[in-house]
Fold this protein.
Amino acid sequence: MAKAILYDASKCTACRACYVACKQWNVLAAAEVKKLGTYYNALDLDGTTWNLIDFIEKDEPDRFRWLFISKRCMHCAEPSCVNVCAAGAIKKDLETGFVLVDQDVCIGCKNCHYACPFWGGVPRFRGEISEDEKEWLAHGKKIPGKRVAGTVYKCRGCIDRVQNGLTPACVKTCPPGALQFGEKEEMLAIAEARVAALKERGEAKAQVYNPSGVGGTAVTYILLDDPETYGLPADPRVSTADMLTKWIMGLIAAGILTVVPFWMVFKAAEAEGKGGE
Amino acid sequence: MHEGTHYWHYLLAIYLFLGGLAGACAYSGTFAEAFSKGRYKNLAKIGSYCVLPIIALGLLILVVDLARPLYFWHFIITCRPSSVMSQGVWILTIFAITGGVITPAFFLAEDRGILPFLKGKEGARKLFQWIGAIFGILTAGYTGVLLAVKSVPLWSATPFLPMVFVASATSTGLALILLIANMQAKKDEVAMGALEKADSIVIVIELIAFAVLLIALSGAGGLAADAAAVIVSGEYAFLFWVGVVLIGLLAPLAIELYSASVAKKAHPPAGLTTLASVLVLVGGLLVRWLFMYGGHVVR
């Protein structure tokens, strides 16, 4: 049965415990951050930052809103990254529905990064492995997943925890209960109920984000505003969905060029009657 | 917000340019020979000799650009039809063998007398040459489709990018053959005139393809329109209007039209022909450059 991580933006307090828990459980180096006078830690996902809280300031006519969103791999039911990987390094775990990178197989071409419809491309590249991690491994301690320099990294859904009956680290730690984990259907039911309650409370734009264009996402959101406000595509598509159309367009161009000019121009030589040579 | 994710850069732009160029060298020459009933066989020969060095250079760039080049074989043992990159591995392999190695081997047998058992086997040569031409078209197409199946608005919000890439590739293929034909001791003015005429029409088609792509992107609204604005009026407008349109398309078009107009009275100056070819080749590279860098602005 497919699992889901449910993130409720209406309950999130942006404490970023999820961010810290992810770093701790997965032994990921702390991000070097600049002091920007904001609440940000890491500004963007990267090879060692698999989730983070993004802050959105929205000026509305009657109020100013400060919205939060947990940026992370959405674990699509139909993942574009899996489709485009020419090394066969990304696979979907059928048991949980999580999308996993096999670091041993990945060769670092970054095709998946560009195919991913979310967060400017979720899989992020790491050129090297940090001293911390090397030291950790040298002491014989275990690291969930593997560490290979020159490959892409992203959220693994804490599959090692889930397979042992635990919830993902971010869910486990979430103080306000904004993150929940369970069967997908169950999470969707909770989300629908919550959205109904939010609407009753006057949150007219409250909605569940589980986009059908990618077959639904194992990371399901309860949003307080339109997806675009959060930097999410309203209607994300599997990037390879219209591959055939695009191939046909390229071949149509080739077909046109074959007739005009090639056939027209080079045919003339034949008519001219074998001059030269 | 997406700093530090500009993973693909000029090396990949050069690779996409070379891929299209190699493909077009094979099919342009083949069409020239076939449609002229053999009159322009020399153009096919020139084109076929170009294929292997260009592919070799392109693959070298591609492998160097990989983070783990020693694991390149992971591509070879994987066949994933849903991945255009995987399709490309197989297309390029067949193209390199048929269009890059076997076809030129027949021509070499004829020209230099090496591999004598291939000499005079015109039927076999044409068979491999046609397979090479078809996979050359697929190679040129793949360089566009590869970008078109991403989640990058400029590349993938409309299905028209492959059209621009195939048109541009064709133009560069013709230009390279023209450039070499122009350097040969015994010039075939008629064939060169035909190449220039063909290329001028390809350039017009490429301009139309560009217009279709940009109008479709602008019409799609949202991020797609923003992406079009990046190259029409934004950060990459100079590269687009001056680099691609003026230097890469209109300038060589003007030269080729001028050459065609004087061709009946006098031989067009060789230097002008060389200039037109070089401009087309530079323009083709700038097209890949434009899309590679312009695509990263709006994600």
Observations:
- Residues 10-295 of chain B form a domain with the Formate dehydrogenase/DMSO reductase fold fold (CATH 1.20.1630.10).
- Chain B has one domain: 10-295.
- The first helix of chain B runs from residue 10 to 35.
- Chain B touches chain A through 66 residues (CB under 8 Å).
